[in-house]
Amino acid sequence: MNSILNKISDWTEQLEKLIIIVSILAMMINSTVNAIGRYAFNRSLFFSEELNQFLIVSVTFVGFAYAVRKGRNIRMTAIYDMLNYRWKKVMMSIISILTALLMFYLAYYSVIYVMELKEINRLSPALQLPVFWIYAVIPVGFAIAGIQYISGFVMNVTHREIYVSFSKIESNTDG
């Protein structure tokens, strides 16, 4: 089971890194070229702001999945920190499975939203691209985050340590 999870984790991590790196580099190049054009030639790229908005969507949703993988997502731990080791493990397992279900639920509804955008053939104002292409990254981000939470749940159920994600073990435990 762990070898399958390792392969899924490796594949999705490479996909996440690729999307994040390409998106950030494209934003940097787009913004730089637009600034040079505006200040040196008094002409801006008509699509620059729109392109950066689309890229920010990619970085946000795929970056969220990446943060979950690295155990760097926001966690509310006031009650959790007061628990003993056993209850921390139970609580982390429950949180992992419930959050995974929430991520898959959000992925499902975002697929419906993307399909509706495709159905109405909505185009972006400047680039005239079908917007469903751009927003298709949202269900991908939610689904990958869901896979990460499921993987964390499996690790918590099959190992003694408390896992905050597939490969990150809780460091502040008393057990």
What does this structure look like?
This protein has helices spanning 2-41, 48-69, 85-120, 131-135, 137-158. It contains five helices and no strands. The protein is elongated. It is 71% helix and 0% strand. The chain has 175 residues and is mainly alpha-helical. The model has no long low-confidence stretch (mean pLDDT 91). The chain starts with a helix and ends in a 17-residue tail after the last helix.
Write the layout of secondary structure elements.
Layout: H1 2-41, H2 48-69, H3 85-120, H4 131-135, H5 137-158
Helix pairs in contact: 1-2, 2-5, 3-5
Helix content: over 70%
Structural class: mainly alpha
DSSP helical segment count: 5
Strand content: under 5%
Instruction: Profile the largest sheet.
Output: none
Distance between the termini: 25 Å
Order of helices and strands: HHHHH
Work out the number of β strands: 0
Output the radius of gyration: 20 Å
Q: Which segments are poorly predicted (pLDDT under 50) over 5 or more consecutive residues?
A: none
**Approximate shape:** elongated
Mean pLDDT: 91
